[in-house]
């Protein structure tokens, strides 16, 4: 995989050694100490290093190696084209093309950027392998590049609706390989998941107060796929259903919202109870209290003003005098003598 690799055959001791060669099958390469795999002609060679001695003895040592090849492509698709329902298993298939060795392959599944574990996982199988034959469809110890696929079953829920699902092929290179194994990931696939409606009870509580003179709007919203149709009814016996999202109520009673789609339905009943609006009464009480307090304040102030600010005088034998106080009378200035009483 990647750059070409080679192996070198060397003497551990040159005593009585005549020549060294690489043998790979029936071909013997004399005096060649380096061997390079030829993946164009043979993906499963069995090379061994051979040393020939003067006494006609031969020492052979096989080369243990693994040839790796990353996939040419990887794709994901649903196995069935039927409608996908919440709570049911969905079978996905991940096709991996021209990879070697397939037994070193690991397949991971993703929901967006998050790794997910399938509910049912099947082993890798060879593409185009007849299922009813006695031949095993698992790649086993095949060293040559092959086309394989992995199948997995996922228990669907509403979060899978229009979600991006993908698969990733990881080629494990063994303990002597790099720390991070090479990977290739498929393009994401998405599909529609049908699930039952659920009414949003946050916007539609079970008890709604109704104040006199103020109509109340009841809003019924539901999440479902396909998008549900909303129906309203009032009363308990023989209710008549009306298709609309919101209704405006003017009187107390029991009102029922029903959300329906192809999967199932959800029903939510609202009890509209009468409530008295005490705000006008409170406002009137506050205004009356202010008036009473103001009247009491004015009464107390008038008494206080009489006793502290006004003085009492008595007119006796009024005589014109220039020393006493003046009192205006019909526009004329008349002077009267006054005696202070207190």
From TrEMBL:
<protein>
    <recommendedName>
        <fullName>Ig-like domain-containing protein</fullName>
    </recommendedName>
</protein>
<dbReference type="InterPro" id="IPR036179">
    <property type="entry name" value="Ig-like_dom_sf"/>
</dbReference>
<keyword id="KW-0812">Transmembrane</keyword>
<dbReference type="GO" id="GO:0005178">
    <property type="term" value="F:integrin binding"/>
</dbReference>
<feature type="transmembrane region" description="Helical">
    <location>
        <begin position="278"/>
        <end position="304"/>
    </location>
</feature>
<dbReference type="GO" id="GO:0007155">
    <property type="term" value="P:cell adhesion"/>
</dbReference>
<feature type="domain" description="Ig-like">
    <location>
        <begin position="197"/>
        <end position="273"/>
    </location>
</feature>
<keyword id="KW-0472">Membrane</keyword>
<keyword id="KW-1133">Transmembrane helix</keyword>
<dbReference type="InterPro" id="IPR013783">
    <property type="entry name" value="Ig-like_fold"/>
</dbReference>
<dbReference type="InterPro" id="IPR007110">
    <property type="entry name" value="Ig-like_dom"/>
</dbReference>
<dbReference type="InterPro" id="IPR047012">
    <property type="entry name" value="ICAM_VCAM"/>
</dbReference>
């Amino acid at each position: 995989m990647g750059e070409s690799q080679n192996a070198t055959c060397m003497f551990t001791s040159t005593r009585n050694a005549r020549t060294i060669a690489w043998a790979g099958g029936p071909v013997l390469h004399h005096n060649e100490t380096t061997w390079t795999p030829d993946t164009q002609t043979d993906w499963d060679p069995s090379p061994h290093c051979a040393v020939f001695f003067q006494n006609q003895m031969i020492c052979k040592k096989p080369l243990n190696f693994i040839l790796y090849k990353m996939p040419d492509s990887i794709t994901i698709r649903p196995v069935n084209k039927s409608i996908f329902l919440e709570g049911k298993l969905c079978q996905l298939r991940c096709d991996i093309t021209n990879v070697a060795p397939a037994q070193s392959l690991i397949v991971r599944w993703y929901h967006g950027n998050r790794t997910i574990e399938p509910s049912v996982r099947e082993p890798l199988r060879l593409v185009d392998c007849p299922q009813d034959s006695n031949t095993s469809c698992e790649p086993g110890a095949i060293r040559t590049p092959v086309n394989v696929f992995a199948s997995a079953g996922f228990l669907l829920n509403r979060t899978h609706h229009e979600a991006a699902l993908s698969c990733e092929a990881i080629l494990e290179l063994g303990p002597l390989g790099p720390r991070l194994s090479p990977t290739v990931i498929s393009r994401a696939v998405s599909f529609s998941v049908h699930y039952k409606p659920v009414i949003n009870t946050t916007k539609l509580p079970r008890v709604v107060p109704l104040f006199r003179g103020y109509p109340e709007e009841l809003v019924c919203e539901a999440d479902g796929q396909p998008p549900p149709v909303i129906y309203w009814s009032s009363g308990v016996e023989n209710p008549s259903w009306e298709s609309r999202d919101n209704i405006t109520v003017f009187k107390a009673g029991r009102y029922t919202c029903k959300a329906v789609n192809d999967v199932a339905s959800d029903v939510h009943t609202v009890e509209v109870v009468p409530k008295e609006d005490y705000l006008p009464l409170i406002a009137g009480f506050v205004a009356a209290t202010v008036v009473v307090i103001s009247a009491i304040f004015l009464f107390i102030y008038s008494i206080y003003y009489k006793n502290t600010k006004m003085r009492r005088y008595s007119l006796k034998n009024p005589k014109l005098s220039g020393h006493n106080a003046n009192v205006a009378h019909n526009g004329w200035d008349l002077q009267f003598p006054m005696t202070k009483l207190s």
